[in-house]
Amino acid sequence: MMTQPPHRRGNPVSKHCTPAALTARQHRVLVAQLETQRAVLRERLQRARETLQARTDPGDTIDSATAQMTAALTMRLIARDAALLGEVDQALARVAAGTYGRCEGSGEPIGYARLKVRPRARCSVAYAQEREELMLAGQSRRWEARRRRGCLPDTPAAGHQSGGRRRGASGPHAGGSVEDDREENDSAD
């Protein structure tokens, strides 16, 4: 039987741990951070696209192979940055709709500390942990049914449907979430 996160067990201590709604100052700081991220991502995307377009004709086979590898890497970076830009734009849309800072899954406030680190976050830490536990416990069918009913915003990641560690993975993030992987990739930002 899966144990529930502390906020779901009726633990009196956990009731005091529920994050409060954002203050006006915190909201302004986070919106400014999102707008800065959007500007940085747009600039990076523009430069990467220009780099792809400015490719010159390589002289020999080795130069051609290097150019192809560089182009493939640039296209992956463009795809990553475009996805991040989409998440930032969605967060700014939530700001405009007045729902920013609320967990999409539980409706509870998302803590300022989480939003400060990841201002585009869509769910609270407690909800993300609960979602992770459901996925890792092999309950992807139940998860999928809840998602189809409109109760959940995300689908389980393909690598986690088996309910265990990723094949061939080792280290501290071997059983980590997609969100962990994204944040690991975002560390270059």
Would you mind describing this structure in some detail?
The protein starts with 11 loop residues before the first helix and ends with a helix. The chain contains seven helices and no strands. It is flat. The chain has a domain at 21-102: Four Helix Bundle (Hemerythrin (Met), subunit A) (Up-down Bundle). It has 189 residues and is mainly α. The chain is 58% helix and 0% strand.
Quickly describe the structure.
The chain is an all-alpha fold and about 190 residues long. It is built from seven helices and no strands.
Q: What would CATH call the homologous superfamily of the domain at 21-102?
A: DksA, coiled-coil domain
**Which structural category fits the helices and strands?**
mainly alpha
Beta-strand segment tally: 0
| Portion in beta strands | under 5%
Q: Could you please say which CATH topology of the domain at 21-102 applies here?
A: Four Helix Bundle (Hemerythrin (Met), subunit A)
* Overall CATH architecture of the domain at 21-102: Up-down Bundle
Task: Provide the descriptors you would attach to this structure in a database record.
189 residues, mainly alpha, Four Helix Bundle (Hemerythrin (Met), subunit A)
Chart the SSEs and their pairings.
Elements: H1 12-17, H2 24-53, H3 61-97, H4 112-117, H5 125-136, H6 140-148, H7 178-186
